[in-house]
Design the sequence.
């Protein structure tokens, strides 16, 4: 059994984890940087430890400080949240060596999925559909040309150490490839200390649909349906929903079964997600596996009426799964409210919250760490609230979202609320006519 949990994170997810711990009656330790002294996670945890100055590198990513904080407070487990140390396999190994339970998957699972070429090979061997491309790493431009001509242009050059859209380049023909190969390799080396590249055929006009997975330490793995995440901008998701308008019961069970097979292949436990590209003919292809709890997990929680964080903690302490798979019960939508100016290219806009009113009512959930008088530090991500609405139908959830966005008052900073208000009335969104390039094609202000 876990007796005390240190939360190696900040912001809304730190609060979300504290709430789950309180329900489970497990005491919590918050860590914070000097910039987060006035943050709510510091106020709501049972104990607190300052782990360094404002920069993430010196605080939330500082492994010796985090481990020392766990040791001086006698915390026997660490919840990493998302980002920061959540997918750092050496951190998991260090936790294990110190007798601390890492609340997440094994170091081996994280490592396998972190190398995108190894991940793809593992999935292919497990019977999960993958995009046609090279068999692993492509060493020379000559080999790259040969493969590109076999599968046909356009292709994507992808860094094996990339992910989330980083280290990726579109190539349309041999001439472009001549320049792009060495450039992408060089960029991968500088960004990730690993120059290795692989090749994939471009799947155009596709959607980003991901399957939520949950495994325990006894070898049981289930899937908890899909989330539609195609409304993104520069690889930052803005709106997520469950279920997806294009996923039929048959497609859900094929994608879900494929995802479970993939997770089995790496002996996965804890919550995880397999991201798929889904094309216009409803073919689906493995993209990446996220070996963490994700920002958008509340969409699945509200669609199925479950608590993924409580389940994650119980799994880490060795309990068997207590959730059953089920078809979606409700339609849930999440809008990410960021401290960004949507009229100015979504530029980060930190500042002080002068006044604040959260929406509420039946089918409305707000996960947020902000309060009146709080100053958003400029050093971390710009997410200030996740607004989730849920109803028996998609129309109902959209209607609730419109009301909730209208009720939401945040003064002192600019936010993405006006963007979401437009989207909730946008005929394309309402009809489900979206794909991952949607926000690149249109100007949201003119919707
Ligand atoms: C692709 C693709 C099309 N074809 N791979 C972007 C993030 C990373 N997970 C992989 N990504 C893509 N891989 C093939 N073979 C298109 C994307 C992509 C994308 C995927 C999901 C959501 C938004 C996206 C935006 C641009 C490109």
Sequence:
């Amino acid at each position: 059994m876990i007796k005390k949990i240190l939360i190696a994170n900040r912001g809304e997810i730190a609060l979300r984890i504290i709430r789950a711990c309180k329900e489970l009656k497990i005491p919590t330790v918050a860590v914070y940087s000097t910039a987060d002294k006035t943050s709510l996670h510091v106020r709501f945890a049972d104990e607190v430890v300052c782990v360094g100055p404002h920069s993430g590198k010196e605080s939330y990513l500082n492994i010796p400080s985090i481990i020392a904080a766990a040791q001086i407070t006698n915390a026997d487990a660490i919840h990493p949240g998302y980002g920061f140390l959540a997918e750092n396999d050496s951190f998991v190994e260090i936790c294990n060596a110190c007798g601390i339970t890492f609340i997440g998957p094994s170091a081996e699972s994280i490592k396998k999925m972190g190398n995108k070429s190894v991940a793809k090979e593992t999935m292919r061997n497990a019977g999960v559909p993958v995009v046609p491309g090279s068999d692993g790493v492509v060493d020379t431009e000559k080999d790259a040309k040969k493969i590109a001509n076999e599968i046909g242009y356009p292709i994507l050059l992808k860094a094996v150490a990339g992910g989330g859209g980083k280290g990726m380049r579109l190539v349309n023909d041999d001439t472009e490839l001549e320049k792009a190969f060495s450039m992408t390799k060089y960029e991968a080396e500088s960004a990730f200390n690993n120059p290795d590249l692989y090749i994939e055929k471009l799947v155009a006009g596709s959607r980003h649909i991901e399957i939520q997975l949950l495994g325990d330490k006894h070898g049981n793995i289930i899937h908890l349906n899909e989330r539609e995440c195609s409304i993104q901008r520069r690889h930052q998701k803005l709106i997520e929903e469950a279920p997806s308008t294009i996923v039929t019961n048959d497609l859900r069970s094929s994608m879900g079964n494929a995802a479970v097979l993939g997770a089995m292949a790496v002996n996965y436990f804890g919550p995880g997600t397999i991201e798929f590209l889904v094309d216009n003919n409803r073919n689906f292809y493995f993209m990446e596996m996220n070996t963490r709890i994700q920002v958008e997990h509340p969409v699945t929680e509200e669609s199925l009426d479950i608590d993924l964080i409580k389940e994650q903690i119980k799994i880490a302490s060795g309990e068997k799964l207590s959730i059953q798979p089920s078809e979606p019960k409700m339609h849930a939508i999440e809008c990410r409210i960021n401290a960004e100016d949507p009229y100015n290219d979504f530029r980060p806009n930190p500042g002080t919250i002068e006044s604040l009113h959260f929406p509420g009512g039946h089918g409305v959930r707000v996960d947020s760490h902000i309060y009146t008088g709080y100053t958003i530090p400029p050093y971390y991500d710009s997410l200030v609230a996740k607004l989730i609405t849920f109803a028996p139908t998609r129309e109902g959830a959209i209607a609730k979202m419109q009301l909730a966005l209208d009720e939401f008052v945040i003064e002192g900073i600019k936010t993405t609320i006006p963007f979401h208000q437009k989207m909730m009335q946008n005929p394309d969104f309402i009809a489900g006519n979206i794909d991952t390039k949607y926000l690149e094609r249109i100007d949201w202000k003119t919707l």
Remarks:
- The first helix runs from residue 11 to 23.
